[in-house]
Design a protein that fits this description.
Elements lengths: L8 H20 L4 H20 L3 H8 L7 H8 E6 L12 E8 L2 E8 L5 H6 L7 H16 L4 E7 L6 H5 L2 H14 L4 E10 H8 L3 E5 L3 E3 L3 H8 L6 H8 L3 H7 L4 E3 L10 H20 L3 H20 L1
Parallel strand pairs: 3-4, 4-5, 5-6, 5-7, 6-8
Antiparallel strand pairs: 1-2, 2-3
Length: 318
């Protein structure tokens, strides 16, 4: 059962009628195929119209939908022989960041991602994808491993932001994120990042300072959440919708600004309606990006990544 978003309710009502008719047809031997087909076409048309004109705030809601595939889903479908590696060797293990070794389409890779969890218990375990400093330090350790063994690095971003608690600050949250970004910029191996849901603040940038940054069509990427932006600028969460508009956080805006490199299209109605198709599309996009980077010498990978992000700053300054 899909969790309904407010703007999807008219479609869900049609889909409920379709299911009811199918149930009646199977129980009473009625031939209702034509009626079901007509309602299905109507539902698809309505869904297509809704998703063709989503507002930035509606995109935020889609990006946060609990039914969207999470990092663990991508690993299960795309990474063979995945071996998770735990701990930062300094303080402890952070379940909000998962990473390790595996094979992507037959090639050995290092994989890192934020994990939000699928239900209440797993969400609490993974702290809703909000990493502590040890999560970012674990990521740095895995990045070191990727470079040592000359393995491509794949990262999957899905976080509201780094954990903002006092204990995280006490253990050096800002420094850990900065060091993670610095390590990304110094890597001499191909790095591909995919924003699969929320890309929030520095907690996202720490994993997205890559040669190629891909972004799902209805995901978001911003310096702060719309709620946080509204509370700071307007001192009221009533302005959340306005903040979402002002932040230019959609994949389409970010592609236009040159912040990301490409948009991966989602199935009709978003990734939560067809996770398997979404994951397959992401896999193909990663494979294409890696193929483009494979032939690039290490020194050019390093130089190109640095210039890419320096150029963003120059554009804004201009």
């Amino acid at each position: 059962m899909l969790t309904p978003l407010e703007f999807e309710k008219p479609v869900l009502e049609l889909e409920a009628k379709i299911e009811e008719l199918r149930h009646l047809g199977s129980s009473d031997d009625l031939n209702i195929a034509d009626e079901v087909a007509e309602l299905q076409a109507k539902a698809d048309k309505q869904l297509r119209q809704i998703y063709a004109r989503l507002t930035p705030w509606q995109k935020v809601q889609v990006a946060r939908h609990p039914g969207r595939p999470h990092f663990s889903d991508y690993v299960s479908a795309l990474i063979d022989e995945f071996l998770p590696l735990c701990g930062d060797r300094l303080y402890g293990e952070d379940a909000a960041v998962v990473g390790g070794l595996g094979r992507f389409k037959g090639r050995s890779v290092v994989v890192i991602g934020h994990e939000k969890g699928h239900d209440t218990e797993s969400r609490v375990k993974h702290n809703f994808g909000m990493a502590h400093p040890e999560g970012y330090r674990k990521a740095q350790r895995l990045m070191d491993l990727a470079e040592r063994f000359r393995l491509p690095l794949l990262t999957f971003v899905d976080t509201p932001g780094a954990y903002p608690g006092v204990e995280a600050e006490e253990r050096g949250q800002a420094e850990a994120i900065a060091r993670c970004i610095e390590r990304c910029l110094s890597l001499r191996v191909p790095m591909v990042s995919v924003i699969i849901g929320e890309g929030g603040s520095g907690g996202a940038v720490a994993f997205a300072t890559a040669n190629q940054v891909l972004m799902l069509e209805h995901s978001i990427y911003s310096v702060i959440s719309p709620e946080g932006c509204a509370s700071i600028l307007w001192r009221s969460t009533d302005k959340t919708v306005d903040a979402a508009e002002a932040l230019k956080l959609t994949a389409q805006d970010l592609l236009r600004f040159g912040i990301i490199d490409s948009v991966v299209h989602e199935p009709l109605g978003g990734a939560h309606r067809n996770p398997a198709t979404t994951i397959a599309a992401v896999g193909e996009a990663i494979a294409t990006a890696l193929a483009d980077l494979e032939a690039v010498p290490a020194v050019d990978l390093l130089r190109g990544r640095r210039q890419k992000f320096l150029q963003m700053g120059r554009k804004q300054a201009a």
